[in-house]
Amino acid sequence: MNEKSLVAKCKKQKQSAQFEAYQKYAPLLRGVCCRYIINKDEAEDVLQEGFFRIFTQIEKFTYTGENSFFYWMKRVVINHALNYLKKQKKERFDESFKDEHLFIADENSDDIFNTDYSKYTKENIISAVEMLPLPFRMVLNMAVIDGLKHKEIAGALSIAEETSRSRLTRAKQMLRKNLIEVNSLVSVNA
C-alpha cells in the first residue's frame, strides 16, 4: 500500500492499516528512540507510546508527498522522547551545563568532525556517542542525524540558539575524544 492510502486508512482508524504502518516504520523509529534513550526497554516503551500518539493525533497530519508521513511520525517520536527524558529527569535538562561547557566556537570548529571514521567500528561510534552527557548527545542527534536547525533544537529543548550551537560544537569535540578513548580500550583488550 502506498503512503498516501496508508495515511487515509489510518485516519479512518483501520487496524490493518495501523498494523501495516507499525510494521513498516517501527524499525526505523526504534532507531530514533535508541539514539535519545540508551536503555533499550525504555526506548521500546517510548516507541510504543509514540505510536499511540501518532494514531491518536493522525488527524493533525496533512499528506504533502512521499515520505511526509514518515518524517511527521519521526518528529512525533522525537518530541515524545524529549518529553520522556524531561519527565524522568535522568540527567538535568536545564542550563546548568551552560556555564561549565559554554565557549564560543571559531570559524574552523567544524574541523573537529573531519575525522577518518573508517578506522572505527559501528559499535565504537555508538559507544562514543552514548558516552556523551545527555544535553550534548541530544543536540548532536537532533542536528547531525535528524537534520534539525538550531532554532528548532532550541525550541524543542527550551534553550537559546547559541546554547544549541555551543553544545553541538562541544559534542563534536567530546565525540572525537571518546572515539579515541573507545578505540584505545578496544586495542588494549584485543
SSE sequence, one letter per element: HHHHHHHHH
Supply the helix-strand structural class: mainly alpha
CATH topology of the largest domain: Arc Repressor Mutant, subunit A
> Could you report the average pLDDT, rounded to the nearest whole number?
83
CATH homologous group name of the largest domain: Winged helix-like DNA-binding domain superfamily/Winged helix DNA-binding domain
Beginning-to-end CA distance, first to last residue: 48 Å
Please give the CATH architecture of the largest domain: Orthogonal Bundle
Which regions have little confidence, pLDDT < 50, spanning 5+ residues? 90-113
Strand content: under 5%
Q: Please report the number of helical segments.
A: 9
Number of DSSP-assigned strands:
0
Overall domain count: 2
Largest sheet: none
Helix content: over 70%
CATH hierarchy class name of the largest domain: Mainly Alpha
C-alpha-based Rg, rounded? 18 Å
User: What's the overall geometry?
Assistant: globular
Could you describe the 3D structure shown?
The chain has two domains: 3-88, RNA polymerase sigma factor, region 2, helix turn helix motif (Rna Polymerase Sigma Factor, Chain: A), CATH 1.10.1740.10; 96-189, Arc Repressor Mutant, subunit A (Orthogonal Bundle). It contains nine helices and no strands. It has helices at 3-11, 15-36, 40-56, 68-88, 96-101, 122-130, 134-145, 150-157, 161-189. GO terms for molecular function: DNA binding; sigma factor activity.
